Amino acid sequence: MLSYLFVEFLLLAEEVPGAVKELGQGQKEKGPGGLFDGIGGLLVPMAAVFAIFWLLVFRPESRKRKEREQMISNVKKGDTVVTQGGLLAKVWRVDGNEVVVVIDKDKDVKARFMKSGIAGVLPEDMLSGKKAGDSGGREAQEAAKS
User: Which domains does the chain have, with CATH numbers?
Assistant: First the structure.
């Protein structure tokens, strides 16, 4: 049984394009080869996978990192920020790499953060609770009901 499988394997090997055929006197003839034989057959797909990976992962990530660095470097007094911990606060002072924020202005609660602790800068209308184009808030809604 084993010899039968070995013979079948040898017969199939002769039919495969690019297989080595023995001629006689130790000479060998290689069948038709192509660009993707050998190591070239591995390098081209690997390069394609790397290019796709770079386009889908590395480029967007570096773009996000640059936008975040620019946002953090442009933080100024009066900006409303959200910290990495989720605190909403208003920037009171910026000192180099450090930011002092006011968390509760009624009780004069201030905290010091590194600039890297800021998750984002919020637009002014977001903190007041008003939507774009909404000028009255709750009072306008109650007046509209009556």
Answer: 20-74 (no CATH), 77-129 (2.30.30)
